[in-house]
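> forwarded from #structure-qc
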């Protein structure tokens, strides 16, 4: 008989997650992640986040996509779990380790905030398949490549709402310039401190929001001189505040703990 697995369902701006605290539950594998991801036969999520102990932080997070693959970063899930853990412990700050590195989290009046670290701007760090200028990729539409723990490909468009996200996102996710596939964003500059953005996430597809994608878009826009380094990002599921500071890219916004459940797979 398969073990029962307690879990939490959370979301940040409709970007939804299953969270498993493996400090007191069985560890996650690709088969469990894919089974729980099924929105008709399982629970359904954009990403699954697994909490384990950390040797150098308060906890460690591993992220799984809905297709059973792993992801190096998931900003909204990190904020959700940070808010839950800080509330549980009566803390206002937290250190979270991930494959991306060590991330700092804090409670603010605007919601939980997480420093997602410095953006990776060199082609090898994103990573891309060969040497090139990450600010101008040789892809139709002149996108920008950014690493935020995951690879990101950002297109600046006149109207983000008219983009066929399902078609274009799937096409670019598997572009040969991205050996590890990529998240894809279509961003419309609304003003010097505001961006409208829609996102396709590798291994998940169209999502209502993406924290690491929002950070990547803000960095790409600032590098292009289209905005300042502090911007409001309006996604299909809501709004995030992104601040690219000297110590990293900070992301702030609302989160929700929806329900607790037990998986009987």
């Amino acid at each position: 008989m398969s073990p029962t697995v307690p879990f939490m369902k959370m979301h940040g701006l409709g970007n939804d997650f299953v969270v498993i605290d493996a400090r007191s539950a069985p560890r996650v594998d690709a088969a469990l992640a894919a089974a729980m991801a099924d929105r008709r036969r399982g629970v359904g999520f954009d990403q699954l986040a697994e909490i384990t102990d950390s040797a150098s932080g308060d906890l460690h997070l591993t992220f799984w996509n809905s297709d059973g693959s792993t992801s190096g970063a998931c900003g909204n899930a990190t904020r959700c779990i940070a808010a839950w853990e800080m509330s549980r412990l009566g803390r206002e700050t937290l250190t979270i380790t991930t494959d991306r590195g060590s991330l700092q989290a804090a409670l603010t009046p605007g919601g939980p905030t997480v420093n997602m670290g410095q953006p990776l701007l060199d082609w090898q760090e994103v990573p891309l398949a060969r040497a090139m200028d990450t600010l101008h990729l040789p892809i139709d539409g002149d996108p920008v490549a950014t690493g935020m723990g995951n690879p990101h490909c950002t297109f600046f468009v006149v109207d983000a709402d008219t983009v066929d996200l399902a078609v274009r996102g799937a096409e670019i996710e598997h572009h040969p310039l991205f050996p590890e596939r990529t998240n894809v964003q279509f961003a419309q500059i609304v003003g010097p401190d505001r961006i409208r953005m829609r996102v396709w996430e590798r291994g998940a597809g169209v999502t209502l929001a993406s924290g690491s994608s929002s950070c990547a878009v803000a960095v790409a826009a600032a590098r292009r001189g289209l905005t300042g380094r502090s911007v409001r990002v309006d996604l299909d599921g809501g709004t995030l505040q992104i601040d690219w500071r000297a110590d990293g890219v900070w992301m702030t916004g609302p989160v929700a703990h929806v329900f607790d459940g037990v998986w009987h797979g």
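QC bot note: Residues 144-246 form a domain with the Diaminopimelate Epimerase; Chain A, domain 1 fold (CATH 3.10.310.10). Helices lie at 30-37, 75-89, 165-173, 211-223.
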